[in-house]
Automatic annotation (TrEMBL):
Ranges of residues in domain N-acetyltransferase: 19-171
Molecular function, one GO term: acyltransferase activity, transferring groups other than amino-acyl groups
Origin: domain of life: Bacteria
A Pfam family matched in the record: Acetyltransf_7
Keyword match Acyltransferase: no
PROSITE patterns noted in UniProt: GNAT
UniProt protein name: GNAT family N-acetyltransferase
Entry keyword set: Transferase
Matching Gene3D superfamilies: 3.40.630.30
Location of the region described as Disordered in the Swiss-Prot/TrEMBL record: 186-212
Length: 212
């Protein structure tokens, strides 16, 4: 997919007038990791969400980037398959975990984060997913329909602020009765002989940004 999105008219003219959202591929990894370093700093590898992403691949079709008109990577978001506890009958509840979401600091305020979020939600719905969870700022994510209404009986597998565990039901009622600890359920990352550079970039695959 590749969606061209215009930046709103009130954005300063120093910014590129257009950016594109596209699927991430292998050639984007280095730029994505550099962006996450700029946007999040050293603490990005110590989030509880890492436990749900470590050694896993993102959900199919849900690793997205934003590129400027000049071809620079200026935004990233990925979603991951998880089990959002159990339902009232004791069956696993399939869901997605969103994060990391990050925008290059030099492009903040241009609508890139919002565009990535809306695109990711639309793609998740198109692909048949029923719910998305994240750990993030309740005020920011409320604009996309996220709230803590259905997460009161759910928990992350590590330290987190309970009021920041948010969910969006794509299929209404999907999280009714969901309870327990979130667990990873995505496809395992293939094992291979890796260079030090490979290992460094893979470690950073499990990091949080504004979502997390």
């Amino acid at each position: 997919m590749n969606a061209i999105l215009g930046i709103e008219n009130n954005i300063a003219p120093a910014f590129a007038p257009l950016f594109a959202i596209a699927d991430e591929n292998a050639r984007h990894v280095g730029a994505r990791e550099a962006l996450l370093d700029r946007a999040m700093g050293d603490g990005r590898r110590r989030k509880s969400s890492e436990k749900l992403r470590r050694g896993r691949l993102p959900a199919k079709g849900l690793a997205l980037i934003a590129q400027s008109a000049e071809g620079l990577l200026v935004g990233t978001v990925r979603l991951w398959n998880i089990q959002a506890g159990l339902d009232a009958s004791g069956s696993p509840v399939a869901a997605l975990l969103l994060g990391p979401l990050a925008v290059d600091p030099s492009m903040e305020g241009c609508g890139i984060g919002s565009a990535l979020m809306r695109h990711a939600i639309a793609e998740a719905a198109r692909l048949g997913h029923a719910a998305i969870l994240l750990v993030g700022d309740p005020e920011y994510y409320a604009r996309f329909g996220f709230s803590a209404e259905k997460t009161g009986e759910l928990a992350m597998p590590g330290p987190y602020e309970k009021h920041r565990l948010l969910a969006l039901e794509i299929m209404p009622g999907h999280l009714d009765g969901a309870h327990g600890i979130l667990r990873a359920s995505g496809k395992a990352r293939p094992h291979r002989i890796r260079s030090k550079a490979d290992q460094s970039s893979e470690i950073a695959d499990d990091c949080d940004a504004k979502a997390g």
